[in-house]
Structure formats: structure tokens, C-alpha cells
Design a protein that fits this description.
The chain has 183 residues and is mainly alpha-helical. Helices cover 62% and strands 0% of the residues. It contains ten helices and no strands. Helix 4 runs antiparallel to helix 5. It is globular. The two termini are 29 Å apart. The structure holds fe (ii) ion. The site of fe (ii) ion has 5 residues, from helix 2.
Length: 183
């Protein structure tokens, strides 16, 4: 599967622009993480890019979300490892995270939301001037973007990254595509 094919499939299945941006943000962090860890950048990137492809098709129903997604990406030609990561990123299914890719997608997913929220409260609403230390501060403020699961983000330790490094890597990666993210 090429990135182009993945994007075409997203276009066909996802209307919500914010959801597309969330998937692009997840992709770019997954790519940075793969480079940092010496893993396959394309495999990790495409997994991030496609992970919520079924969100609208399942109408956000957590009982089916990511099961359909795993089937869809398999049809697109994703490997078993990629499909498994997508399947178990939805905790509802109770499928244990097994591979490094499973664990990476799981902690990256909510990090995008924290970073976007931290950018949106800035006067310019831009990512460019946002510093990692203020995202870290926001992480500790429980009432800030309360829907963002801090524990899930902190599971970056499972792939060998300290929280500070993880947040910084995610922020820098997202700043690199700020224009596409509209931030
Ligand atoms: Fe997601």
C-alpha cells in the first residue's frame, strides 16, 4: 500500500476535516517515533494515518470502531502487524498491546489532542511558537483538555521514551506539518 492509496481511502471514508487532521498528526508523530526507535517509518506512518479510518463508518460506536478499521486496512494491503495495532488501539475490545507498534500507536493517539489543545489556547492559535515545556505543563493540569487520557500518553515508557522526550518529539513532528493541520 502506498501513502497515496491510504489517503484516497481516507478521502472516500472520512468527511470530518478535524478527524483527517488528527490522523495526519498521528502519522507524522508515528514517523518521527519510528526514526527515533529505528523502526520501519513507512509501516508506522501508515498505521498512524489510517488508524481511525472507520470512525465515521462505525458512527463512533466503540464496540465496532477499529474492528472494521482493521478489516478495511487489511483489504488495502496493510500487514497483520499494522492491522493489529489499529485493532487494539481501541481499549474497548480489551485486546492486549503486544508489539512495539501497538504500544506506539496507543500512546501517540491522545498526544495529538493534547498538543492541538495547547496550541488552540495560545493567542495566535499556532503550533509554531508553542514550546514543549508548556505542553508538559498542560499535561499536569488535569482540568485542561480533560478528555485527553494522560495515563495513555504516559505509556510511552513502554516503548522506552520518557514523557518529556515523547512530548517534545510529538510537538516538533506536528510543527513540521502545521500548515496541513491548519495550526
Ligand atoms: Fe485516533
Amino acid at each position: 500500500m502506498t501513502r497515496k492509496e491510504a489517503l484516497n481511502s481516507i478521502k472516500a471514508n472520512v468527511e470530518n476535516e478535524n478527524l483527517v487532521k488528527h490522523m495526519l498528526a498521528t502519522e507524522v508523530i508515528m514517523r518521527a517515533l519510528a526514526r527515533r526507535l529505528g523502526e520501519g517509518e513507512e509501516e508506522w506512518g501508515l498505521t498512524g494515518l489510517l488508524h481511525d479510518i472507520d470512525m465515521e463508518l462505525t458512527e463512533g460506536n466503540m464496540a465496532t470502531h477499529s474492528k472494521l478499521g482493521a478489516d478495511l486496512v487489511t483489504e488495502l494491503g496493510a500487514s497483520e502487524v499494522m492491522a493489529h495495532a489499529i485493532l487494539c488501539h481501541n481499549e474497548t475490545h480489551g485486546i492486549p498491546l503486544k508489539t512495539k507498534l501497538d504500544k506506539a500507536l496507543f500512546c501517540v493517539d491522545p498526544l495529538t489532542g493534547l498538543i492541538i489543545a495547547a496550541a488552540l489556547v495560545r493567542p495566535d492559535k499556532k503550533l509554531a511558537g508553542l514550546e514543549a515545556k508548556s505542553v508538559k505543563k498542560r499535561f499536569k493540569e488535569k482540568s485542561f483538555a480533560a478528555g485527553v487520557d494522560r495515563q495513555q500518553i504516559a505509556q510511552c515508557s513502554e516503548i522506552g521514551l520518557e514523557l518529556g522526550e515523547f512530548i517534545e518529539l510529538g510537538l516538533v513532528a506536528m510543527q513540521g506539518i502545521a500548515k496541513e493541520l491548519g495550526l
